[in-house]
Specification:
single chain, alpha/beta
Length: 238
């Protein structure tokens, strides 16, 4: 993927140290210090232009959010969206949002064990060729890393427009004996799903009546226990 941006992008994002983190590996195990609080940390891997992570940070001030991408231009565009979403007269960004320039393939260098509460994978590159399967963000190699980074209440939330990637992901999670819930083969079939923040791609594909596939993977021990408790409630069997 190549992005063309105007000159001076790196200099522009370097000036935004209230929002942009250019060397995020330096904060490994210390992200609560960067945010200045101990709120749970939610991360979007491959945030694109930042619509989703910006919207989530505004809607959920009780959580901290980090959007990760490896392109300067996407960091710049996401920073613009974040400041607009915050709706502050001085143009400042949400206090609970960071945009990190980093390669997801080395995500274990950016976060410590059990440092995250939730990981979002939204419309990741499907890497359709079989020889590129290991690059898919739901390949067991990546999932193994996510499991180490998530805390006892940790979850993975995944959305895609690619049926082949969704099928691959279902098999990956099943092969690792990971419990899934809220599986959808057409998230917006009956209209916009409630409590759902859309990405740029999601908005585009939904307007074209393309199905959006979604699932939640329950990872942490406390999250699993809560899931089992809810399944045992009388209304769950109706």
């Amino acid at each position: 993927m190549r992005l063309r941006g105007r000159k001076g992008i790196r200099e522009e994002i370097e000036r935004q140290n209230d929002l942009v983190v250019l060397e995020p590996q330096q904060w490994k195990g210390r992200w609560s210090e960067w945010f200045g609080n101990d709120k749970p940390i939610y991360v979007e891997l491959g945030m694109g232009k930042g619509k989703f992570i910006s919207g989530m940070s505004v809607q959920h001030p009780d959580c901290n959010f980090i959007g990760v991408d490896m392109y300067d231009e996407l960091i710049r565009r996401a920073s613009d969206k974040a400041r607009v979403a915050a709706e502050r007269e001085d143009g400042s960004a949400p206090d609970n949002l960071a945009l990190a320039l980093f390669n997801i393939e080395r995500i274990e260098e950016m976060f410590a064990e059990a440092e995250l509460r939730r990981i979002y994978l939204n419309f990741s590159d499907p890497w359709p060729k079989k020889k590129h399967a290991r690059r898919r963000l739901t390949h067991p190699g990546f999932i193994t890393k996510y499991i180490r980074l998530l805390d006892s209440r940790g979850e993975i939330h995944f959305k895609t427009d690619s049926r082949s990637l969704f099928e691959f992901s279902l098999n990956s999670f099943a092969d690792m004996n990971i419990r899934l819930r809220n599986i959808s083969l057409d998230l917006h079939k009956d209209g916009p799903a409630p409590n759902n923040v859309m990405t740029e791609y999601e908005t585009k594909f939904s307007e074209q009546n393309m199905p959006i596939y979604r699932l939640e993977a329950v990872i942490g021990s406390d999250a699993l226990a809560e899931h089992e408790r809810l399944l045992k409630r009388p209304e769950a069997s109706v």
